[in-house]
Automatic annotation (TrEMBL):
This is SEC24 homolog D, COPII coat complex component. Residues 1-108, 121-290 are annotated as: Disordered. Keywords: Cytoplasmic vesicle, Membrane, Protein transport, Transmembrane, Transmembrane helix, Transport. Signal peptide: none annotated. Its main location: cytoplasm.
Length: 1058
């Protein structure tokens, strides 16, 4: 008998036909609503007979046999979770998915895609559990185990709900779970909460408002307003705020409902803890094809034995479907997230460098794949067959080696390219531009010296930091000093170049005022070695703040600044990076001048996408010029108002650069945060003038690429620079059938220039399984990689499609994936049961959080620049970064073990986990938030903040005091540990008592708190969180002016409304 894992039975679900007609990827939305239209003409429908279920029978009378698995007992499933819940009773069994039940139900009124996930999930088994996969075509006749609880269908519209519903003939009936703040149900499906979180996300919908606790509802006659109960007004953000007085008499009737146990819901923290317990601290060897690696949150050591480390490559699934029809049927995206320069821990072996001399790396003559472990040597070692295209190639004479009795080369383990998944080749002149050796790269620091930056103290801060920071320029391992050259430019409406040649006693300034025709006024002395010109450079950095101290110039240029950097690198015949410190929208008369095009009226309209589309012309050509020269751009922005970040960030995004934004910058409050970012950015490992190609074995190919990249054709991924934090997400499509025997092979080859000026090829190889069974595909899925792919796909699609359409596609594809699993991989069960694939059981949580991120939320309270910034930085994120961004860590500090060096285990991101007597740390990789409860013990406050009690905490606290006691040392150690793990610095922000949720609004983390309500996605309403947000806003926004001294240093107000 199969095991069902977690099973919940919503009271109002109906079985529905198979899920067809979903658009693939991010194409256009369906021409016709798939499951009706939300807000369409209401229809009434009779209630079904209580407990009526379609019986399940089997011709053989025997339970179906388990599907065989190619995974051995030593291979653990990703996110496996012990079974705690019995299967449903026989009365709850239903026909296989796709067969409508024998019922007299009338068709529901048409509904919009905003409601589709609700209806779709109601007809699929969205629970979870590692029970054996079974063939749904052979249902068992023996009754499953007793179900924990089962609820009755709702009464017909207008039917009284005061009395208990009649019990079914086979099983007891219980009231559905409900939040204590929610009113009794009006009917409908409870899977989506008391608001439309999937389809509309913070914007009004046509049609009736969402009900309080009954989920989506198509009202019957008289449901719109009961006598004596006037129609409630619409909420500020579309739809009524859920509350005890919503609706009519139906809301005021019925007994109190039992609340669902939150710990019975799939938990992201539990999944990560289980994986850490099972695979943490172990050695993960890569000798098996298609094995699922540990989660990104797990601490493990990689031993390369023929496949690339998961630090370099992760896939959405490690078992590809054999045919395109199977891939289309399940709609699980086939993708890989490649991080070619990922940091290798000190306890793992760094990549070996292979030198084949003047002949260069050995490649297949047909497909040009590089020598790797997938090449099969034949004919006594004189020839080899390519594993990618099956072409037989001659082995060069110098590379010949005999084969042993197993057909393997005798020197197999002496050559990294034959035994390892990742390695490097030294490239020859054939791989260099113009067949000339590459030169060491250069870093050019370009400082905006307009009035705003001088007044804020930014210019002086940057100049002081560069005096010491330039000693830490990146260098090759073992090198005494860096070969990276440096140059300096200041600008406002005009540009100032500086000659800092070591032979000079004083630096020399050269001014270029004609920004329309940009050129570099000096050839010798602009780019120099820092060690040789240290004295002159320090002299210059001392003088710059004083030279412009009295400036009144507020207008700036931007495009000419980038053009000047490109021309300087072109003159020096080298690649490099520009560090631009800018403060305002470029309004001076020059190429690339921008106008304020921010228009809140476009929010939630068809034209909203234009707010995120970069302005073409000058900046588009600049991106091409930068990539051609190998010039990356890192932009540090310090705006006090709108700067059109969508356009200004376009060049950094296409050149492998980074964007850092510090709104309303103040040196005292934000200086250390900015300097930490600058230090990490300058010192990180990086490669320049890179070009990457992903080759695959026959049967599939790479078709789409997402990242901080530029593409001139469909195959070559060009990056002016690629560092240790940048990842490229690749999508694959079938062009033929795949073989289960040979599997699927992929090779990522990255040609780049090192910081010492050497041209190299970095190779990453990965082999995957192929299967004709969808159960194997779902078992091999990785949720963290999937959500990375979905996020990048959605953020690209929002440039060309309305946000509503993008959200609908996300919902539809997710519903289709889960419905396909229920139909083809799970054992027969009641149509109202909820079943999730074990490897994807927390995927709906991530999807909800993704749809509440700034770019997709569609709220006028969010600044356009903030939304554009998050969209741009997410484009180049790796798997671990998106995982943390969408589900942050909430770390309890009040009970931490001060004697341990381990960071306390995080708890679920729920307001229920916060206690008045507690202290918590919330971090999502971008923000670090320290919260104190009102009843936090005075002795803990004293030891951490050096004040006698909670009430004595200063409102303008900007940093954690350095105290000599165990609690203070432990807390600072935890924060330092988190900062070291993240690619960008995080400013620690403090809050206390009822300011918690309001401050979370400002930090952009609102969607992470009370996330447990999102995990009620399919079984319980999130009424309580609507109440919390409503009350907090009403209570705190009126007197918020008295807290300006706190909030004016926090990021722009960010509202996430479900």
């Amino acid at each position: 008998m199969s095991q069902q894992g977690y099973v919940a039975t919503p009271p109002y679900s109906q079985a529905q036909p198979g899920m067809g007609g979903y658009p693939a990827g991010f194409g256009s939305s369906p021409a016709q609503p798939l499951y009706g239209h939300y807000g369409g003409q209401p229809q009434s429908f009779p209630a079904p007979p209580t407990g009526l279920m379609k019986p399940v029978s089997s011709p053989s009378g025997m339970p179906p046999s388990e599907v065989s698995s190619q995974y051995g007992s030593n291979i653990q499933q990703n996110g496996a979770h012990p079974q705690r819940y019995p299967a449903p009773p026989a009365a709850a069994a239903a026909s296989p998915y796709g067969q409508p039940p024998n019922s007299t139900y009338h068709t529901m009124a048409p509904q919009a895609p905003a409601q589709q996930l609700t209806n779709q999930m109601g007809s699929m088994n969205l629970g979870y559990g590692p029970g054996p996969m079974q063939n749904p075509q052979a249902p068992p006749t023996s009754p499953p185990a007793q179900q924990p609880f089962q609820t009755a269908p709702p009464p017909t519209m207008g039917q009284s709900t005061l009395g208990p519903p009649p019990a079914g003939p086979h099983s007891p009936q219980m009231a559905p779970p409900q939040s204590p703040l929610a009113g009794p149900s009006m009917g409908g499906h409870p899977s989506m909460g008391g608001h439309p979180p999937m389809g509309g996300m913070g914007r009004p919908f046509p049609g009736p408002p969402p009900p309080g606790s009954g989920g989506f509802q198509q009202p019957g006659p008289g449901a719109a307003g009961q006598p004596g109960y006037p129609q409630q007004p619409q909420g500020q953000f579309g739809g009524q705020m859920a509350g005890p007085f919503q609706g009519g008499a139906a809301h005021m009737s019925g007994p109190p409902q039992k609340k669902l146990d939150p710990d019975s819901i799939p938990s992201t923290t539990q999944v990560t803890e289980d994986d850490q317990a099972k695979r943490g601290g172990q050695v993960y060897t890569t000798n098996l094809r298609g094995q699922v690696p540990p989660l990104v949150t797990t601490d493990f050591t990689v031993q390369d034995q023929g496949n690339a480390s998961p630090r370099f490559m992760r896939c959405t699934t490690y078992s590809f479907p054999c045919t395109a029809d199977l891939a289309k049927q399940c709609q699980v995206p086939l993708g890989a997230i490649i991080k070619p320069f990922a940091t290798v821990p000190k306890n793992e072996t760094p990549l070996y460098v292979v030198n084949h001399g003047e002949t260069g790396p050995i490649r297949c003559n047909r497909c040009k794949a590089y020598m790797c472990p997938y090449m099969q040597f034949i004919d006594g070692g004189r020839r080899y067959q390519c594993g990618f295209c099956n072409c037989v190639n001659e082995v060069p004479t110098f590379y010949f080696q005999h084969l042993d009795h197993m057909g393997r080369r005798v020197d197999l383990y002496e050559r990294p390219e034959l035994s390892l998944g990742s390695y490097e080749f030294e490239a020859t002149l054939d791989y260099c531009k113009n067949n000339k050796p590459a030169s060491p790269p250069a870093y050019i620091f370009m400082i905006d010296v307009s009035y705003a930056n001088i007044k804020s103290g930014l210019v002086r801060l940057v100049c002081e930091e560069l005096k010491t920071l330039l000693d830490n320029l990146p260098r090759e391992d073992g090198a005494e000093s860096s070969t990276v050259k440096v140059g300096f430019v200041t600008y406002n409406k005009i540009l100032h170049f500086y000659n800092v040649k070591s032979a000079l006693a004083q630096p020399q300034m050269m001014v270029v005022s004609d920004t329309a025709e940009m050129f570099v006024p000096l050839l010798d002395g602009f780019l120099v070695n820092f060690q040789e010109s240290r004295a002159v450079i320090n002299n210059l950095l001392d003088q710059i703040p004083d030279m412009f101290a009295d400036t009144n110039e507020s207008e700036t240029v931007f495009a000419p600044v980038i053009q000047a950097g490109v021309e300087a690198l072109k003159t020096a015949e080298c690649s490099g990076k520009l560090f631009i410190f800018h403060s305002s929208i470029p309004t001076a008369e020059a190429p690339g001048k921008l106008k304020n095009r921010d228009d809140k009226k476009l929010i939630n309209t068809e034209k909203e996408k234009t707010l995120f589309q970069p302005q073409k012309g000058v900046y588009e050509q600049l991106s091409k010029d930068c990539v051609s020269q190998g010039c990356s751009v890192d932009l540090f922005l310090f705006p006090s108002q709108y700067v059109d970040l969508a356009t200004m960030g376009d060049v950094p995004t296409h050149t492998g650069g980074s964007i850092f934004k510090y709104s309303n910058f103040q040196v005292e409050m934000d200086g250390e945060h900015f300097l930490s970012d600058l230090r990490k950015d300058v010192e990180k490992a990086i490669g320049f003038d890179a070009i990457m190609r992903v080759r695959t074995s026959t049967g599939f190919r790479a078709t789409n690429f997402f990242g901080a990249i530029h593409m001139n054709n469909t195959t070559d991924v060009e990056m002016a620079a690629v560092d240790c934090d940048k990842a490229v997400t690749v999508e694959f499509k079938h062009d033929d059938k795949l073989s289960e025997e040979t599997g699927a092979l992929m090779q990522c080859a990255l040609l780049y220039t090192t910081v010492s000026g050497q041209r190299r090829l970095r190779i990453h190889n990965l082999s995957l399984n192929c299967s004709a069974q969808l159960s194997e595909l779902y078992k091999s899925c990785e949720t963290d990689a999937l959500i990375n792919f979905f996020a990048k796909s959605a953020y690209r699609a929002m440039l060309n499609q309305p946000l509503k359409t993008v959200r609908e596609i996300l919902v539809n594809q997710t519903a289709h994936m889960l419905a396909c699993y229920r139909k083809n991989c799970s054992s027969p069960s009641a149509a109202s049961q909820l079943i999730l694939p074990d490897a994807m059981k927390v995927f709906p949580v991530y999807l909800n959080s993704l749809m509440k991120t700034g770019p997709l939320v569609g709220s006028a309270e969010l600044s356009t620049d903030d939304r554009a910034h998050q969209r741009l930085i997410a484009t180049a994120m790796g798997v671990e970064d998106t995982q943390l961004l969408l589900y942050p860590r909430l770390i309890p500090l009040h009970n931490m073990d001060v004697a341990s060096d381990v960071v306390p285990a995080p708890v679920r991101c729920s307001e229920e986990r916060l206690t008045d007597a507690g202290m918590f740390l919330l971090e999502n990789g971008r923000s670090l938030f320290l919260w104190l409860g009102q009843a936090c013990p005075p002795e803990l406050v004293q030891r951490v903040f050096n004040v006698p009690s909670f009430t004595h905490l200063p409102a303008d606290l900007s940093s954690l005091p350095v105290l000599d006691n165990p609690q203070s040392k432990k807390l600072r150690s935890i924060i330092d540990s988190l900062l070291d793990q993240r690619p960008s610095a995080m400013k620690v922000q403090y809050s206390m008592y009822w300011l918690l949720l309001l401050c979370i609004l400002f930090t952009g983390c609102l969607n992470y708190f009370d996330i447990i309500k999102e995990q009620y996605l399919f079984v319980e309403l999130g009424n309580k969180r609507s109440h919390i947000y409503h009350m907090v806003i009403n209570l705190t926004f009126k007197p918020w002016e008295q807290y300006n001294h706190i909030f004016n240093r926090l990021p722009k107000l960010t509202l996430f409304f479900a």
